[in-house]
Amino acid sequence: MTPLKALQAQGQAVWLDFVARGFVEKGDLARLVAEDGVRGVTSNPSIFEKAIGGSSEYDDAIRAALQEGDRSVVDLYERLAIEDIQKAADVLRPVYDATGGADGFVSLEVSPYLALDTEATVVEARRLWRDVGRPNLMVKVPGTAPGVPAVQTLISEGINVNVTLLFARRVYEEVAEAYIAGLEAFAAQGGDVSKVASVASFFVSRIDSAVDALIEEKAATVNDPEERSRLEELLGEIAIANAKLAYRSYKALIAGDRWKALAAKGARPQRLLWASTGTKNKSYSDVLYVDELIGPDTVNTVPPATLDAFREHGTAASTLERSVDEAAAALTQLARSGISLDEITDRLVTEGVQLFADAADKLLAAVATKRAQVLGDRMDSQTITAHRALAEAVSAETETWRAKGLIRRLWARDAGVWTGADEAKWLGWLGSTAHGWSKLAEYQAFAADVKASGFTDVLLLGMGGSSLGPEVLAETFGQQPGWPKLRILDSTDPAQVRATEAAVTLATTLVIVSSKSGSTTEPNVMLAYFLDRLRQTVGDAAGSHVVAVTDPGSSLEKVAQRDGFRKIFHGEPTIGGRYSVLSPFGLVPAAAAGIDLKQFLTSADVMVHACGPDVPPAANPGVRLGLVLGLAAKAGRDKLTMLSSPALADFGAWAEQLVAESTGKNGKAIIPVDGEPLASPVLYGSDRVFVDLRLASDASATHDAEIAALEQAGHPVVRIVLRDRAGIAQEFFRFEIATAVAGAVLGINPFDQPDVEASKIKTRELTAAFEATGKLPAETPVATSESFDVFTDPKNAEALRAAGAGADPASWLKAHLARVKAGDYVALLAYVARNPAHIGTLQAMRLSVRAHRKVATCVGFGPRFLHSTGQAYKGGPDTGVVLQITADDHPDLAIPGQSASFGIVKAAQARGDFGVLSERGRRALRIHIKTDVTAGLAALAAAVDHALS
Ligand SMILES: O=C(CO)[C@@H](O)[C@H](O)[C@H](O)[C@H](O)COP(=O)(O)O
Ligand SMILES: O=C[C@H](O)COP(=O)(O)O
Q1: Distance (Å) from CA 147 to ligand 2 centroid
Q2: Ligand 1 binding pocket includes 279 (Cβ within 6 Å)
Q3: 10 Å Cβ neighbour count for 788?
Q4: CA–CA separation, 364 vs 861, rounded Å?
Q5: Which fold has domain 379-412+613-746?
Q6: Architecture of domain 430-602
Q7: Is it the case that residue 184 has pLDDT exceeding 80?
Q8: Closest CA to 681 of 636, 648, 641
Q9: Are 318 and 294 in contact (CB under 8 A)?
Q10: Is 573 helix (H, G, I), strand (E, B) or coil?
Q11: Which residue from 426, 460, 463 has its CB within 8 A of the most atoms of ligand 2, so it is best to mutate?
Q12: What are 349-361's pLDDT values in tens digits?
C-alpha cells in the first residue's frame, strides 16, 4: 500500500490544495483520485491567482465569455472559477456517491473582500452554492468574527461549508459550536442533516513560521544557555501541538450530548482539516505537517509538491493522538517564555484575510488586463506618460488605494473616501447605465414617437450638466439620417436666444427642458420664451411639443403637468447635474436625436466594467486617470489641458464642467483648459498636465510628434484613443470616476458646488432690485472711452491704479494683464452670444495672452460657464486673472410673464458673479463693450494684444 493510500486506512482523507483548468481537463486530477486516493480539492484566492493570473490557460475561455457579451471583471473571474470547480466536483462525484456524501468535496471560497461582513458573506455563499449547483461543493467562509455567524446561517440552510483561516483553538471551538447550532436549526426546519457536510480548516505551517521567528528573536537575547535551549526546543513544535489540542477539542465535542443528539439524526461531524501543510522551513521535513497529523476523521489538504513527497517518503502512522500531553506542555512553555500564541493567531487571521485580498487583487488585475486585451480597440485605450516624481507619487498612491480597498469603498458609496460629508448621497451615477438599460424600452418608444411625429428639430434648454452632456452628443454624433437635429440652448444672451429660434422650425420642433432642480433661472426663462413662441405657432398643441427631464417632485414637473407636456422623464435625485450625462439627462435627448442607445450603453458599460469596484487601481483606467490628475494638481500641475480630435472637440466643454465644478473649492482646483490649440512646449509652464483625446481615424504623425515633444519637455500626458464616436460614452464614465478619485486625492467633496450658490444669491439680489425699481443698481466705471467702460471693485482699482492704470481703458487692461505671473491662468469670461465669430475673437485673445505671458488661458461664455468652470474660478486657488466682458444687448428680448428681460437677467448674472470674485479678493476686471458686440470684441482683442506687448 502506498503511503497515501495508507492514510485512508488511518481514517484521514487526503485532499489536494490545488486546482487549475488544464490539470482537471487533462485528467491529472482524475488520476490522483484513482491512483492516490485523493478525496477532495480545495481552492483559495491564491490558488486561482496562480492558475488564472499566471498562465494563458484561461485566455480562450475569457475570449469566449466576452463574445457572449461584455461583463464585469469579477463576473468573468467567477465564471472561470465556477467552471473549474464544477469540473473538479464532477471528477470527485464518484467519491462523493461511493462514500454516501461523506467525502469527495471541492471547495470554493467567498470573496476575501467580504471577510468582515457577515451579511455579504452569506449572500455571496448562497449565490456560489446556487451557481456551482453541485452537492459536493463546500463554500469556504473565513473563521473571522463576522464569518462565524455566517457559517451558522449557511449551515442552517443546508449549505456545505469549509470554514477557513482557523489558527486559534478558541475560534475553532466557536466554529464547531456554530456548526452544531446551524445543524440544530436545519433539523428543526425539517432538513436532512445527513446531507450537510463541513470541515474546519485549521492552518498549520504559518503558525510555525510566525512562532519560530519570535522564538529565534527571543533566544538571541537570552544569556542563560539552558533557558535558550528550552526555547529552541520549541522550534517547529508549536503548530503541530496546537493542531493536536484542536483535535482533542474535537473529540470532546463529538462526545458531548448535543452532538450525539444530532448524530442520532444522521449528522456528520465537522472534520478538522489541516491546511497550510506545505513545509515552509526548508530545514524541516517536507512532509512534517502530514506525518505528524494523521488521525481518524480528519482531512489534510496538501499542495501538489507535498503530495508527491508524501507519496514518496511519507509515513502513514497514527500520530495525531500521540504525545498530546507533551503538546500541551510545549504550549505552556511557550506562554511562560512570554510569547503569546493568542496574539500570534489573531495576527495570522488578519494577515490571512489580507493575503487572500492581495491575491484577489492580483488575480482580478490579471483578469482585467486579459479582458482589455480581448476587447482590443472596443475599449478606448489610455496611456500615461509622467515624469519620474509624478510617476512615483502615482505608484505609491495606487498602492495605497489598493491596500485600503478605496475603489471598492468608492463603489460602496463610503463618504469616508472623501471628506465624510454627504458624498454618499451623490453617487447614483455609478448605476446610471444599469438604470439606462432598465429604461431602454421606454426610451426607444419615445424615440419612435419623436420620429413618427415628424419633428425636424429637438431643442434642449438647460444649463451646465443638463446641457453640456447633450451638447457633446449632438456635436459628436451629428444629425442622424431621418432624425431631427438636436440643438442646445444654454444662454440668456438675447442674440443667442434669437439665433437659436431662427435656426429651428418651431412648428416641428420638440423642446426638451432639462433641469434637475427645476428651479434654475436659465432653463425657466428659456422655457417661458419658447413655450410662448410655441403657443403663438401651434396654439393649444404647444404642451405636446415639450418634454421635461427633471427630478421627481420639482417645480418644473408641476409646470409640465399643468401645461400638458408631451412627456416627463424623471432624473435620479442621487446624481448631481454634472454627473448626469449617462442618466435620462443625456439619454432622453440622445433618444430623440436617433442615437443608438443600445450601442451607446454597451460602449459606456465597457468602461463601467473597466472601472468597477472589482478592478484594482493599477488596472483601473478611471482610477489611474484620477490619481494622475489629482497628484499632478497637488504637485502644482493643476491646469488640465484638454486636446481633442476635431470630431470629439466638444467633449472638453463637458469635462470642464465636471472637473472644475467638482474639484474647484476650498482654495484647491484642477483648472480645466479647453479649446487652447496645441503649441510648442516653450509656451507651456510647469503647471500643465495634458489629456489628448483622439479618434483612431484621426491619427496624425504631426500631432503625435507635437505630443511627444510635450512628453520630452517633462509634461505629463494622458493619451486616450477611441475606435469610434460611440467610444465617447466610455469617456463620460472614465472621467466621472477619475474626477471622483481626483477629488479624494485633493481631500475635497467632489459633489457639492458652494461657490455657484454664492453668485446665484448675488444675482437674485440684483434681479430683486430690478423688480423693485425697474432698473439694476447704478455703477460707476473706473475708466471710460467711446468703446468701453471699465469696472472693478475698490481693492482691484487701488492695486491697478498703483500699477499705472489711469483714465483710459487701455491702461487698465495693461496693468491688469501685467499682474499675470507664472502658474496663473487667465480667464476670459464673455457674456455675449456664443457664435463662431465671437469664439474666433476670444480664441485670438487667449492666444495672444498665452504667447506673451506663457500661462494657461480659459474662455467661458456667460452665463453658461457659471454652471461649469465658474465654481473653480471663485472657489479654487487665487491663481486666476479674470477679464470679464459684458456688452449692451441691442435689441434686448422680453421674457414672457416677467418684468426683467433676457438682457437684464444676463447683466445681473455677470454682476453677481463679479461681486463674488471681488469678495474672494480675485484679480478681476470687467470691460463693458458699448458698441456693436462683434466689432467691440474685435477691438478689445486688439487692445489686449496691445496691452500685452
Ligand atoms: O483553507 C484551505 C482549505 O480549506 C486551503 O486552501 C488553504 O487556503 C491553504 O492551505 C493555505 O492558504 C495555504 O497556506 P500556505 O501554505 O501558503 O501557508
Ligand atoms: O449642472 C447643473 C446646472 O447647474 C443646472 O442645474 P439644474 O439641472 O438643476 O437646472
Answers
A1: 45
A2: no
A3: 25
A4: 45
A5: Rossmann fold (3.40.50)
A6: 3-Layer(aba) Sandwich (3.40)
A7: yes
A8: 641
A9: yes
A10: coil
A11: 463
A12: 999 999 999 999 9
Identify the helix (H) or strand (E) that includes residue 689. strand 688-695
- CA 163 – CA 172 distance, rounded (Å): 9
With contact defined as beta carbons under 8 Å apart, do 20 and 51 qualify? Answer: yes
Asked whether 867 lines ligand 2 (CB < 6 A), one says yes
pLDDT in tens, 870-914: 999 999 999 999 999 999 999 999 999 999 999 999 999 999 999
CATH for the stretch 756-948: 3.40.50.10490
Asked if 581 contacts 429 with a C-beta cutoff of 8 angstroms, the reply is: no
> Catalytic residues, which ones?
140
Cβ of 517 less than 6 Å from ligand 2:
yes
The verdict on ipTM greater than 0.90 is: yes
Angle between helices 147-156 and 169-188 (to 10 degrees): 30
Please, which contacts does 6-10 make with residues 24 or more away whose CB atoms are closer than 8 Å?
6/316, 7/37, 7/290, 7/294, 7/300, 7/310, 7/314, 7/316, 8/37, 8/39, 9/316, 10/294, 10/295, 10/296, 10/316, 10/317, 10/318
Q: How far is the CA of 679 from the centre of ligand 2 (A)?
A: 34
DSSP string, 597-619: HHHHHHHHHHHHHHTSTTS-GGG
* Residue nearest (by alpha carbon) to ligand 1 atom 17: 276
In angstroms, the CA 465 to CA 864 distance is: 10
**Integer Cα distance of 448 and 592 in angstroms:** 8
Cell output for 946: 496691445
Ligand nearest to the CA of 352: 1
Query: What is the distance between the alpha carbons of residues 611 and 379, in angstroms, rounded to a whole number?
Result: 12
Same fold, 379-412+613-746 and 756-948: yes
Going from the Cα of 275 to the center of ligand 1, the distance in angstroms, rounded, reads 5
Ligand nearest to the CA of 461: 2
Q: How far is the CA of 46 from the centre of ligand 1 (A)?
A: 9
pLDDT at position 757, please? 83
- Which of 38-47, 221-230, 372-381, 491-500 has the least mean pLDDT? 221-230
CATH number of 3-204+243-315: 3.20.20.70
d(CA 866, CA 872): 10
Give yes or no for residue 466 CB within 6 A of ligand 2. Answer: yes
Ligand nearest to the CA of 752: 2
**Which atom belonging to ligand 2 lies closest to the Cα atom of 756?**
4
C-alpha cell, 360? 484577489
Instruction: Write out the DSSP string of 840-880.
Output: HHHHHHHHHHHHHH--EEEEEETTGGGGTTHHHHHHS-TTE
Domain boundaries, the chain: 3-204+243-315, 379-412+613-746, 430-602, 756-948
Predicted local distance difference test score (pLDDT) of residue 756: 84
Q: Are 512 and 461 in contact (CB under 8 A)?
A: yes
